[in-house]
Design brief:
alpha+beta; Pectate Lyase C-like; 4 strands
Length: about 140
C-alpha cells in the first residue's frame, strides 16, 4: 500500500500539498522527503521543520515564509526557489544547488551550514562586506 505525506500550512494547519512517498512511511515530526521530486510546488508558509530533503528536487518551488528550521538539504536542488522570508536557521545546505534562488532581508540563515565554495557563501560574504562598509561610512559621517 503506497503512503503519502501531507505538507501543512504552519499557522492554519491547512493541507498545502499531498506527496506520494511510495512504500516509505513518513513520520510527522521529522519527515523524510529525501530524493523526491517536489519541483514547482506552492508551499508558502509550510511547516517543514526538521525535514530531510537530502537529494530532493525543489527547483522552482515557492517556499516563501516556510519554516525549514534544522532541515537537512544536502545535495538538494533549490535553484529558482522563492525563499523570501523563509526560516532556514540551522539548515544543512552542504552541496545544495542554491543559486539562482530568491532570498530577501527577511530570509533567516542564522547558523545554516553552507558549502564554503558555493554561490550562496559568496553572496553571503558580499552582503556582509556591503553592510560593514555602510556601517563604517555612517560611523565616519557621525564622527565628523
Amino acid at each position: 500500500m503506497p503512503y503519502t505525506y501531507s505538507i501543512r500550512h504552519r499557522f492554519s494547519g491547512k493541507v498545502l500539498h499531498v506527496i506520494p512517498t511510495g512504500h516509505r512511511k513518513v513520520e510527522l515530526c521529522a519527515p523524510d522527503l529525501s530524493g523526491l521530486d517536489l519541483s514547482n510546488l506552492i508551499l508558502n508558509d509550510a511547516d517543514l521543520c526538521d525535514a530531510n530533503f537530502d537529494g530532493a528536487n525543489l527547483r522552482g518551488t515557492k517556499l516563501a515564509g516556510a519554516d525549514l528550521r534544522r532541515a537537512r538539504m544536502r545535495g538538494c536542488d533549490l535553484r529558482y526557489c522563492n525563499l523570501d522570508g523563509a526560516d532556514l536557521r540551522e539548515v544543512d545546505l552542504i552541496g545544495a544547488e542554491v543559486y539562482p534562488a530568491n532570498f530577501s532581508k527577511k530570509t533567516k540563515l542564522f547558523g545554516a551550514r553552507i558549502d564554503p565554495v558555493s554561490e550562496l557563501a559568496e553572496m553571503s560574504q558580499a552582503i556582509t562586506t556591503a553592510k560593514l562598509r555602510a556601517q563604517a561610512s555612517q560611523t565616519s559621517l557621525i564622527s565628523m
